[in-house]
Model the fold of this input.
Amino acid sequence: MVSEDQEQSLYLFQDWENNKGNFKSRIIMLLFRISSLIYHYRILRFIFFWYLLLYKFAIGWLMNIGINPSAVIGRGLRIQYGFGTVIGSNTVIGKNCNVRQLTNISAKMKENGSYSRAPHIGDDVDIGINVVILGEVNIGNNVTIGAGSVITKDVEDNSVMVGSTATILKKKYIISVEGA
Done:
């Protein structure tokens, strides 16, 4: 299922601080956390099926964003505007990530009609406007993905990715000074 680090937290307001000043994003993440909690327990799905329908309507039709309840999203996801953003089923997103509008993160349909594994995104990833992340890709920690990029291959830690069929623009290095 999911690793200990990716375990779903029962704390519903875990994204509240990262979305400070953006009421819409706060509401989206609160509704997602509730739907995710319901989705991951069969008995809750049976009892609260009506909530999952309400969630689909409120998020999809009223707020024009799609976050599948089966997605595993770490603490502190920040959604900037979010308009037209889709996070597909079984997608795994790490802690303290930033997602902007018109972004699509989902599995890829194969030629035989089946779907690939959903993307796995590491911690502290900054995803630009109109980014597409498709298929069985692993995106490392501390990655920046530029606007309009298409990610179809794995991305190493500390990278900056740009372009359609994204390529590495540069590597980011974190220098720590001991005793400072």
Observations:
- The first strand starts at residue 66 and ends at 67.
- The domain at 23-171 is CATH 2.160.10.10 (UDP N-Acetylglucosamine Acyltransferase; domain 1).
- The chain has one domain: 23-171.
- The two ends are 42 Å apart (CA to CA).
